[in-house]
Amino acid sequence: MxxxxxxxxxxxxxxxxxxxxxxxxxxxxxxxxxAKEKTLKERFAEIYxxxxxxxxxxxxxxxxxxxxEVLLEQAYGGMRGIxxxxxxxxxxxxxxxxxFRGRTIPDIQNELPKAPGGDEPLPEALFxxxxxxxxxxxxxxxxxxxxxxxxxxxxxxVIDLIDRCPANLHPMAQFSLAITALETESEFAKAxxxxxxxxxxxxxxxxxxINLLAKLPLIAGKIYRNVFKDGKIPSxxxxxxxxxxxxxxxxxxxxxxxxELMRLYLTIHSDHEGGNVSAHATHLVGxxxxxxxxxxxxxxxxxxxxxxxxxxxxVLEWLFGMKETLNGDYSKPAIEKYLWDTxxxxxxxxxxxxxxxxxxxxxYTAQREFALKHMPDYELFKLVxxxxxxxxxxxxxxxxxxxxWPNVDSHSGVLLQYYxxxxxxxxxxxxxxxxxFGVLPQLILDRAYGSSIERPKSFSTEKYIELVQKIESxx
Length: 475
Description:
Elements: H1 4-33, H2 40-62, H3 72-76, E1 90-93, E2 97-100, H4 105-111, H5 123-132, H6 138-150, H7 156-164, H8 171-181, H9 187-194, H10 201-228, H11 242-250, H12 256-268, H13 277-286, H14 292-303, H15 311-326, H16 332-344, H17 362-374, H18 379-398, H19 409-418, H20 427-449, H21 461-473
Antiparallel strand pairs: 1-2
């Protein structure tokens, strides 16, 4: 009779064989889908050399062109408005709002492939667009979804690390820790240690980025289940798209509206040009040739701050405070008084204003339209809508806000609350999953185009005083 140890060993071997077979079968399905179409990596390999050469020529011929003027107040104001980063995926216009490779949010909602029967764009398709500038076909998007699902498994040490985190450690800190620990899986780091040719940096960065993106739903889902639920998490469904899998891991996969919300959420929160803290931090760390795992972790640590990604949590706290104070009276005079009370107390109105935008954030508008379609009678949405009718006028009269219009943070938490995902401290993790779709394509582009390490010049206040005095003496 076989020993217990032998039986356990045999069972473990069979499980490994089945897991390997499942992975290969799903990978085969993914690649057979695009037998007649280029994969994302193949397509990027075709198009980037010409673009890289054009950039090299442009820098050589026009490199001495003066493109901006720097004021002293900008240096002390966080470099706001100073053109100094190359970011291919998106550009934020103060009036038009965000454009992804030249396309507005309504454009991508209309043009990008969707899940069968779905209304919202698939974030996988946006990743393709941000990297190549091209809208993928439905088959290419489906294959990319399958590839991401096939690469989603987490190494055991990362699972163990998440499980060892105390429940009172903020979900965003756990998210960053887990992604940093994935450095063990970095193909770029391994290749660099072996002395790979610089021309191949992008290829290993691509593989790392796809592997990292693929693993984020399981990391996020496990953190959510550990902190707020019973710790049990389902497996990735190899036949589902990214947003559907994330929804299922969080426990909301049976709600078709929530799945649609996740697809929209991941798409519109992904990229907002390169100057915001999370994008800039990812780009900065990546410019030192750190792996995508370390680079994204740096960006997420910035996203965790209350002046960046955590702002949506602060909006909700403020809304609940208003809801309790007004006690059902959402009239214009009542809301106006609460707004003035907030401002007169020396506080800002959360969810209003933006460093660049000078109009209503198109991401706010997209979420508002989603709410009008799916939850028009939801009390919290009605409150947000009524604030939208009052706040711009109050903030304009107040005179200290350059942009009196709502931004994305003033709405996103409300949608999640409606569907029962009420744990606001987790919202920034969802934002982080989404932001990966925007910053990882740029890391690949940076390596493909041979971008330099970022190294701006700094001065002490004494040196700035000296500099200003010299300038003034010449007038």
